[in-house]
Amino acid sequence: MIEGNLPVWPALDVGSGALRRASRDWHDVAVLTTRSPWAIAGQLLTRGTDAILVGGNDRTSLAACAERAARSETVVGIGSGLVMDAAKYVAKQNGQHLLQVPTTASNNACFTRTAWIMEAGVRTPERECPIPRAIIVDRELLATAPVPLNRAGIAEILCSHTALFDWRLAYEAGRPVDWDESLEEATRCELEALETLAPQVATGDVLAFEEIIKACARFAPWFSSHPHARFNAGSEHIFAWGLEAVAGIRLVHGETVALGTILMSLLQGNDPEWAASIIRAARLSFHPEDIGVTWTTVEETLRSLPRRAQMLPWYTVIDTLGSPEQAADRLARLGSEGRSYVDEVKRRST
Ligand SMILES: [Zn+2]
């Protein structure tokens, strides 16, 4: 059991009819959303509300959203990761209260205080966004999200498999990374629980998707209390973000993280079979041809990792690959080993 002075995050408001119930108490709110979740969520609100559609996560679009929302006391984000980040950003800019209504289990964006935004084509963190006053997970709304999107959320827990390895590397290298054995232990428990959760996620059961969100919620206070601890994001996220940047299109975050977790656990020599077994059991897409990229894009992403790693104040397995020539050589080998391994994992899944 973990003790300590954790920042206060609201208890999840989760279940059947949650949005209708919660929205009875809303007044003076600005809703940020995107088209498809709003088509359903808009019908569930107890009173008619106008919505601001989020067009993208570049600073110019977000500044326009912030201006339109500025007169309200509270910002409500209703949607997927893009909207959660936009709502965080707007609430911070305008000094407003924040309510979050994630409509898929696909990402953990409503549980972190960092909004990722694009600034001149570069992914940039906007930190210290407000902690939401409430996080509302409506069962009926969650059930309407595409199953592959909801399944993808399990990768936001699975990524701790490679992240914990990187975090320990950093600690052993003497980096200031908020090392905490009780947090490491708590994270391992969440990983072990995936062995039971993954087959339930595969069935498409909305209750399993709620369990993903509950696990992400249990991590939330630790992102604030241990800001330098890499217990839930490491080299696999550097890969995942890199893959999206190289591909130049928006990919399903959890699917890129799943591929990243397989490849980085191979690089770490850290039980890739276990990570692959969870991904297979959850029927989560991970193979490049199933997630919208080519292997050439994957190889280009691998080659770019040392450069990308330097853009973040993290220490991961990527920083242990030696000189630029040695790193390039190792990552080129990973490109070919990884390809056969990922193909093999897919063959065993079908
Ligand atoms: Zn993530």
What features would you describe in this structure?
The chain has helices at residues 18-23, 35-44, 59-69, 81-94, 139-144, 147-152, 155-158, 160-172, 181-202, 206-225, 235-247, 253-268, 272-281, 288-291, 295-310, 324-349, and strands at residues 12-15, 29-33, 51-53, 74-79, 97-102, 115-119, 122-126, 134-138. The chain has 350 residues and is an alpha/beta fold. β6 and β7 form a beta hairpin. Helices cover 56% and strands 11% of the residues. α12 packs across α16 (324-349). The longest helix has 26 residues, at 324-349. The protein has 2 domains: 12-144, Rossmann fold, CATH 3.40.50; 158-199 and 224-349, Dehydroquinate synthase-like - alpha domain (Dehydroquinate synthase-like, alpha domain), CATH 1.20.1090. 46% of the residues are buried. Strands 1-8-5-4-2-3 form a 6-stranded parallel β-sheet, with helices on both faces. Strands 6-7 form a two-stranded antiparallel ribbon. The structure holds zinc ion (ZN). Zinc ion binds next to α12. The site of zinc ion (ZN) has 6 residues, from α12.
Report the bound ligands by name, code or SMILES: zinc ion
CATH architecture of the largest domain: Up-down Bundle
- Sheet with most strands: strand arrangement: 1-8-5-4-2-3
Treating each run of at least 4 consecutive H or I residues as one helix, how many helices?
16
User: What best-fitting shape do the alpha-carbon axes yield?
Assistant: globular
CATH homologous superfamily placement of the largest domain: Dehydroquinate synthase-like - alpha domain
Structural domain count: 2
Beta fraction of the residues? 5-15%
Helix/strand order: EHEHEHEHEEEEHHHHHHHHHHHH
Look at the helices and sheets and give the structural class: alpha/beta
Determine the mean pLDDT. 95
Are there runs of 5+ residues with pLDDT below 50, and where?
none
